[in-house]
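Researcher: Sequence of Glutathione-regulated potassium-efflux system follows. Predict its structure.
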Amino acid sequence: MYLFASAAPPFLQEIVVLIAAGALVAYVGHRFRLVPIVGFLLAGALIGPNSLGLVKDQELVNSAAELGVILLLFSIGLEFSLEKLTRLKKLLFGGGGLQVGLASVGMMGLLMLFGVAWRPALFTGFLVALSSTAIVLKLLGDRGETSSEVGQVSLGLLIFQDLAVVMMVLLVPVLSGIGDTPWHFVGAFGKALGIIVAVLVVARRLMPRLLEVVARTCSPELFLLTVIAVCFGTAYLTSLAGVSVSLGAFLAGLVVSESRFSEHAFGEILPLQILFSATFFVSVGMLLDAGFLVQHLPEVLLAIVAVLLVKVVTTGISVLALGYRAPVAVEASLLLAQVGEFSFVLERSGRKLGLFPAGIPDGSHAFIAATVMLMVFTPMLSRSGVWAGGQLKRRRQLAVAQSGPTTDEAEALASESFARFENHAIVAGYGEGARRLSRVLRGSGIPFLVTTLSPQGANEAEAEGMSVLRGDYARQRTLRVAGVQRAKLLLVVDDDASRARHVVAVARMENPTLRLVARVRMVSEVDPVRSAGADVVVCEEMEGLVAVLTSVLEDYRQSPKDIEDNEDAVRRSGYAALRQPLALEKPLLICALEEGCLSWRKVTIRPGAPVVGESVETLSARAGGALKLLELRREGEVLSHVTEHTRLEAGDELSLKGSAEAFERVAELFRAPPPEGLEAERPSTSTPPRTAAELIDTEATYEFRPRAGTGPCGHLDQLRPVRPRTRGCEECLKLHDTWVHLRLCLTCGKVGCCDDSKNKHATGHFHDTAHPLICSLEPGEQWGWCYEDKVQLEREP
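Model: Prediction complete. Tokens:
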């Protein structure tokens, strides 16, 4: 009866509409290949109070949206590191400071030309100077360009903008003329900066230890709650100093990224981040008043044009001032041309104190309309930036081909003599992949040089002692100075497919004997780059499968030459063997399976496995003499003298030969405790989960005699003296999973896990076999249980 007694909570309608609208928009966007952000914004405008009015509780939506921003920025912080952030310091403080200053002053000057007083004009400049961290990083992440040159520039500017919000919020009372003194502002800003530093220092020292302790509990619920507490707790602490919660969440993610549990944390919060970040974009769309937009369309369009003019010009100047090329400046300028979500917060703070955009009370409505429209058009502006940047690159390449490099470029090219290089490798660019590759090459003795146009990348490579040529490696002249005619290899690892194809074509014309290696992301990009002249095109999408294939061939004892030939065949075919939906008429993979290769296995002894410390003789005896040790490799070296008394150690790699049955017999000896990644999946219970480290004796015989007078049971005739078939839960061991308590079937000896364990294999065994009687295998426990009669049996002492 109580099921019908209570009405639905008042907020349930809003929640249902939000989630349903988000799901519908995501589906439509997927079918029509639209950017999801645009759909979420339009959905918000449609269901909001100014349109259909399906969602009326704006405060509820705003709260959910704030959670979305926090989780989005936290996840972005998880993907970064303090090392990466340190590399952005010039961008952050130099470029970011210049961009915010120019945008604020530029908008103020533009408005003052039309008679707006300097205070509201500067306030409007503050609003316009900020860009949307959530939208920009979402677009970059979806395109996989967060680590690209444009992505790094955008991130540096955005982080400084989030820092600048603190100063702007503190300045709003000063600009209103009714607030605090400038000295109070200085003190508050110093306090904010101090709290940020304190949070970073304390969190970096404590966070790895805290996560280590939590992870050892093997409770996914506790780990998730801890990560969320760190995220929201850090955001709250920084907000106490007036710092935006988004910046606090980013700092929290940055700190967690320094621990070895960052990937685990990211996986745990990703579903929440997707849900609440979608809510954020819907909530922004709800701010749009379609009626006001239609009635005041000229004013809104004028505001959009003014914002675009100021943002594109000032961002472009800031990026160029840091030494980046025009294509990067154009792409970054159009990507950051919108107004940010924190401008809404800043505008609301000013409105309470009588400050309005452009000094007009209705300016708030025009500002919101222009901001939402700019957010909607951001994906289109970003694509326009990519196109314009590509056009600039092509025009510059054509001009250089006709007239040669500029004076500055000629001086840069002539700054170092590279005539001494021969049979060397040329690393094209200094992106994330080239950076890692160069650091490996540096210690290998292989002669190489780096050529890049990035001032930041060049300075970093030179600081690490590498030979660097500052120039565009897509140009004939630059490659000649790099000694391409004498070079052995050219490595193109970070460029998009279009630029990689151009670089390969130019280099191939210069040196037909040069070995050209390029990396692309998608398999569809392989053929165009190979046709331009690349010898090897490594595809990220497929190369992981090639590594798996290599491992398979090694395990079936194919010769190194055959393995290499098969790898080359797969790559030469453009990964045809791996990407064809149907089997090829002529197989590319041909294996010569020699006699005995199927009965040969390479087994690594993992820490905690029962076989550690046992002798070779024990291993052979356990297999009934049907297992032969062919080779024992320890610490990378083959042991030359192995006897039956040799003790096995963790990390040993054994080459064994035997039947499948023999390997099955010795499987328990090699079964180690699950790795950390699986430990995290254990259920949260009052008793800590158990692993294979606490194994039971399979040689002991269990004979359960019920004490007289214990519960009536009609199935005692099924009691048998049994030996445990395995040293732990049989199914969990096969799955490399964990349990809480162990139960023994008193009819067949099957060992299963209890109902407190997540898999409940003991109960499952009863349903599969109808064996009703079990007993506990826990030390000190003397009870049994009948599933059929549902009675507990006490064991005779």
